[in-house]
Amino acid sequence: YGGSSGYPYYLADMDRNGTADLIIRVGNILYVNTDGDIYTDWWFTYGASNGSDDYYFADIDGDAADDVLVRRTNVVDNWFLVLYNSSIQTSGAANYNDTDFTYGWGL
Hints:
Blueprint: E1 8-12, E2 21-26, E3 29-34, E4 37-39, E5 44-49, E6 53-58, E7 68-73, E8 78-84, E9 102-105
Antiparallel strand pairs: 1-2, 1-9, 2-3, 3-4, 5-6, 6-7, 7-8
């Protein structure tokens, strides 16, 4: 756990090594902590938009394949981690879900 007051945090084992990694939004910047490595939204690339949500993709482990899909809901100005996949597709984002993740809110 590493939430900041009022901001959502998401926990997932991104690299499948048995240790939960931390994903947290602070303000408008998304931080990803994968066992000590910090990534900000500068590492995220714009994926698609369906009119209300924007989708972003990121290569977390540096293997040139996108690992994570993040949905930014414009209405509530929030971030949602939707899926981890080592070979994530860049289409059909609405078909993904968050079943691989635990999530909550900062205290």
